[in-house]
């Protein structure tokens, strides 16, 4: 999956923790009226992992104050809030103002009622978002308002962070200092800290859809260094560190990994982004046009637990017995096939079969990517169902959501039998349309239940 919405400062997560830890080793006192709380609560709502990582970094920075409890928002109930006097919330916004899956329960519990029960609570909200979306930081702002409506005492206005901007994060840090929670002598912007990067050599790059009416899609393979032990799980993300530009600025791009570490290579599916000025997207242009086979690119790996599979450690002894492994319904389009392919490769390693892939592209003639591999997996029983739909070929079925709607009874049967649903691909059209079909077929309450159970997992952009 291509993460071309530009989170250029994602490396600041580790930097934030390191800077705060280094500066806070000396004893400090809390001047804020909420001082004396035996424990500080940090609640987070995170879909791709950034919010959780920042919450954990903040926990390390506040450790000198005493006990700090870090919880996903879904685990923050009334009892939990009553037991704390100070609470900090790190809240991402998902899609168009929606709560991340880890904040869905909190949303229902606190955003839909108005009783005042939190007058003892001093709180602050760090809202993560992306200004390119209409409802910028929408869920974080809603959490901030809900806590105030319940009587909570806001320490300072919600701090909105655009794509992990260093300047915005520095403002959050300064506000915590002013509230008496942090005392840091150095008020400069957060500096870049060393990360665990891996220099990977591009061994091959293949254009998968030459002649397609859509953007060019490339399959890139990077050889893992023999001297390093590099491991990731299906669903995890590779973060590309781009060379510094002429202005000296660094940038990163995120991609779903289309392979398993046991293969000895890191595979990506990258859509070449064509800009209006005739140029290419920064990350896709580097990978698909500038980087040559034999050259190195720097990556670090990011855990994406919200998109991990149901049976990462399962090994079925009898290859014919697939009933022990929950079936997966894998739904995606375009470069989103990367994350789904990794899950199917994991299923093969686990000797698990009987899964269902619904995948959309533009034309059958030019966009039948990995057709031989997918058909082979169907013949082997890894895939019990394989539905490929092409939007530019005409006919009744044009998009993946149309397949699901037509096969609604089968969809219901699979879910009732315990299947997990994985969606990977476009947030603009595909993912919302698939979600509407799921609600239509299963009902809104059932879909929310699947989210809370971890049986409906999304990696969309």
Give a short overview:
This protein is of the alpha/beta class and 461 residues long. The chain is built from 14 helices and 18 strands.
Describe the structure.
The protein is of the alpha/beta class and 461 residues long. It has 3 domains: 2-178, 3-Layer(aba) Sandwich (Rossmann fold); 198-303, Beta Barrel (Elongation Factor Tu (Ef-tu), domain 3); 310-460, 3-Layer(aba) Sandwich (Rossmann fold). The protein is 30% helix and 24% strand. It is built from 14 helices and 18 strands. The protein has helices at 12-23, 50-61, 78-82, 104-110, 138-149, 166-178, 282-290, 337-349, 364-367, 371-380, 400-406, 408-416, 430-442, 444-453; strands spanning 2-3, 39-45, 67-72, 86-92, 122-129, 153-154, 159-162, 198-207, 217-223, 237-242, 251-256, 265-271, 296-302, 328-333, 355-361, 383-390, 420-425, 456-460. The longest helix has 13 residues, at 166-178. It is globular. Mean pLDDT is 84; it is low at 2-37, 186-194 and 312-323. Keywords: Electron transport, Flavoprotein, FMN, Transport. This is NADPH--hemoprotein reductase. Its cofactor is [2Fe-2S] cluster.
